[in-house]
Amino acid sequence: MWIDSHCHLDFFPAQIIKKTIKSAKNSQVTNIVIPSVSPKNLSQVVDLAGQDDSLFYALGFHPMYIDEIDDSDLHRLAECVKNSLPVAIGEIGIDLFAKKDNIKKQEYFLASQLEIAINFDLPVILHTRNAIDLVLKYLRRYRVKGGIAHAFNGSNQQAHQFIDLGFKLGFGGAMTYPRAKHIQRLAKELPIESIVLETDAPDMPPFWLEKTQQNQPKELEKIGTFLAQIRGLDPHKMAKIISKNTSQALPMLGKLCT
After folding, report:
1. CA distance linking residue 46 with residue 116, whole number of Å
2. CATH for the 2-257 domain, from 3.50.50.60, 3.40.190.10, 3.20.20.140, 3.20.10.10
3. For the chain, how are helix, strand and coil distributed in percent, rounded to 5?
4. Which of 13, 87, 94, 237 is deepest in the core (most CB within 10 A)?
5. Are 168 and 245 in contact (CB under 8 A)?
6. Are 93 and 107 contacting, i.e. CB atoms less than 8 angstroms apart?
7. Are the C-beta atoms of 60 and 77 separated by less than 8 Å?
8. What is the pLDDT at residue 257?
């Protein structure tokens, strides 16, 4: 019913992963997409996704791990993509919040991974923190097969630039906080067909979780219900819309689900 388009399930302790998947299914979260972040977890996310039919994966290197990789890792990534069934290249992008002194290296590896996405005709899952305009510049240069702008919190104008390039926009727990008026306004006013949902679990917890509680993919049901309320829609109808949007953003997801 609900699809979590972005969950780092491999970050969870191994002994609770099966329980976490089961609780997600009990909360009507029928599919979860697990993006890799570094060379160290490429095989891990592939193997994890193979443990349950509800799990899918994307392969890529997160900008916060860029200092740990080199060109040989790009070759390894391409080989891994060639020999497996990722639904996207990701999580890739640029992050100018955590670090700025390696911006040229971040740009180089974003461009290189966009080329891999083009070569394999795959969409991308993008990380754009404090770097939306810079990422958009690269998307205009490297015309990938759309994808998802993860954890979107940019302007309305930036949102429509992503949409015009064939992207969906990811919203999650950050939207549920009372002070998150800007994100809520975007979630309410942007075209409904441009929105997908995500937990980014175990990160990005929704408002209702206490600090001692871990964010899990099961929370997507309540996040989806929150979005349905601010859009004035029935949650069941919203779930169908989100599932359709996510399958459009990640076409392999729809094919592999059938």
Report:
1. 18
2. 3.20.20.140
3. 50, 15, 35
4. 87
5. yes
6. no
7. yes
8. 66
